[in-house]
Amino acid sequence: MGVSKVGDMSRRRFEHAMQRMRATEPQTRENAFDFLREHADTYVDDLIAEFAAERDDHGLRCRLLELIAEARSAKALEVFRDELEGTDESLRFWAVRGLEMLDSREADKALDEARDGGWIS
C-alpha cells in the first residue's frame, strides 16, 4: 500500500474498512463502503493506492473509483484520465463522474479531450 498521511489510528480504520470491503457478506461490504465514502477526502491517497494495486476484483475496483470520485481531490485527476481511455465501461463511467465532481478547468479539459477522442459521448 502507498504512504498515507493519516495517523496510526486512522490508518488502522482504513485497513479494517478495506478488509470489510473484501468480505463475502454484502451488508459488511456496504457498511465499509459507507464509512469510506464519509471519509473519502481523508483517505484519498490510500484509496488511489488500493485502486492501483487491485487487479482481481472488478467490483471492488469500481467501488474504489467511486470512492475516489467522492473525495473530489485533484490528486485523482490522472487516475480518472487513465480510466477514460480504458475499455471498461464501468470504470470509464466513474472516471467521467469523478472528473465532473472535480469541477475544475483541468477536469473539464480532460473530459473535452475524451469527447474529442471519441472515448466518451
Describe the structure.
- This protein has 121 residues and is mostly helical.
- The protein is built from seven helices and no strands.
- The longest helix has 14 residues, at 8-21.
- The radius of gyration is 14 Å and the shape is globular.
- Helix 1 (8-21) runs antiparallel to helix 2 (26-38) and helix 4 (58-71) packs parallel to helix 6 (89-102).
| Helix percentage | over 70%
Question: Count of DSSP helices?
Answer: 7
Residues in β-strands, percent: under 5%
Order of helices and strands: HHHHHHH
Describe the sheet with the most strands: none
Please identify the structural class as seen in this structure: mainly alpha
Assign an overall shape.
Answer: globular
What is the radius of gyration computed over CA atoms, rounded to a whole number of angstroms? 14 Å
Number-wise, the strands total 0
Instruction: Report mean pLDDT, rounded to a whole number.
Output: 93
What is the CA–CA distance across the termini? 34 Å
Unreliable stretches (pLDDT < 50, length at least 5) are none
